[in-house]
Amino acid sequence: FKWVGGILHGDLGESLSSSPGAPRFVADIISSRLRNTFLLASVTALIAVPLSIVLGVLCALYRGTAFDRVVNGISLTTISIPEFLIAYILLIFVAVRLRWLPTLSNVKDGMDVADWVWRMTLPVLVLTIGIIAHMMRMTRSAIIGVLSSPYIHMAKCKGASPARVILRHALPNAWAPIANVVAVNLAYLVVGVVVVETVFVYPGIGQTMVDAVRTRDLPLVQACALIFASAYILLNLVADIIAISTNPKLLHPR
Predict the structure, then answer these.
(1) In the prediction, which pLDDT does 108 show?
(2) Helix (H, G, I), strand (E, B), or coil: what is residue 43?
(3) pLDDT of residue 189
(4) Positions of the chain with pLDDT under 50
(5) Residue 105 in contact with residue 202, Cβ under 8 Å?
(6) What pLDDT was estimated at residue 190?
(7) Is the separation of the CB atoms in 193 and 38 below 8 Å?
(8) Of 38, 52, 80, 213, which is the most buried if we count CB atoms within 10 A?
(9) Intra-chain end-to-end CA distance of the chain, in Å
(10) Measured at the alpha carbon of residue 147, what is the angle toward residues 144 and 148, in degrees to the nearest 5?
(11) CATH topology of domain 24-251
C-alpha cells in the first residue's frame, strides 16, 4: 500500500541497485527509457497501421486474385514465425552478411536524426512484420463481411465502382472490428517490445525490465510491469470507445 500510495505522487520507489550514498530512483531510470520505447512503438504504428489497412482493402477489392493469395500467404507465414526468430533472420542477412544496417540499436541522446533512424530501422521492421498480418487480415475479413449487406448491393445496382463501394460504403461500416484489432495489436506492440529490444539491445523499457529481472531489482520490475499493464488497459479502452462511437447500433441502442 505504501508503494501504491507513492505512485499517486509520482514516486515509483528506489532501485535496489543503488549505492548507499547515491540512491537511484526508479522514475529517473525509466524516464528516458520509456521515451525510447514509445518512440519505437509510435514509428512502428505510423508505418504498420496505414499499410495494413491499405493491404486489407486491396485484398478485399481483388478478392480471389493472385495478389490476394500472395498477400494472405505471406501474412500466414509471418503469423506462424516467432518474433525473435524474424529478428535473428534479419540480423543474419541484413546486418551481418549484407551490412546494410547495424546489428545493435544502441541509440542515445545527442544523436542526429539520420543516425537515430538508421539504428531504429531494423527493430521497426521486425515489429512491423510482427503486427501487420493480424490487422491486414481483420481489415480484409471485416470488409468482405460488410460487402454482403443489402446497402452494398444497392450501391452496386446504382452503378458505383468497386473502389467507391469499398471506400465510401463498406470501410466506414467496418471500422469497429478494425479499430479493435488495431488497438489490441498496438497494445501488444507496447508489451512485445521486450523481445525486440533485448535482441537489438535497444535502450527501452523492455530492455530495462530484462536487466532488472537479471539483477532482481524488484521496484524497477514492478514499475515496468505497471507501465505495460497500464498501456494495455488504456489501448483496449480506446478500442471500446471507438467501437461504440463508430457503430450506430451501440451508440443509439433504441
Answers:
(1) 74
(2) helix
(3) 78
(4) none
(5) yes
(6) 75
(7) no
(8) 52
(9) 44
(10) 105
(11) MetI-like fold (1.10.3720)
Cα–Cα distance, 123 to 94 (Å, whole number) = 12
**In the 8-state DSSP scheme, what is residue 10?**
T
- Per the CB < 8 A criterion, the answer to whether 15 and 24 are in contact is yes
- Which residues pair with residue 14 across a beta bridge? 25
110-134 exposure pattern, b = at least 16 Cβ within 10 A, e = fewer: eeeeeebebbbbbbbbbbbbbbbbb
d(CA 171, CA 64): 19
C-alpha cell at 178: 478494425
Q: Quick count: other Cβ atoms within 10 Å of Cβ 68?
A: 17
Distance CA(91)–CA(216), nearest Å, equals: 29
Helix locations, the chain, DSSP H: 2-8, 26-61, 66-80, 83-90, 113-146, 150-157, 162-164, 171-173, 175-200, 205-214, 218-246, 248-251
Q: Is 102 exposed, middle or buried (0-12, 13-18, 19+ CB in 10 A)?
A: middle
Cα pseudo-dihedral 135, 47, 238, 164, rounded to 10: -60
- Contact (Cβ atoms closer than 8 angstroms) between residue 225 and residue 20: no
Domain regions of the chain by residue span: 24-251
The pTM for the full model equals: 0.80
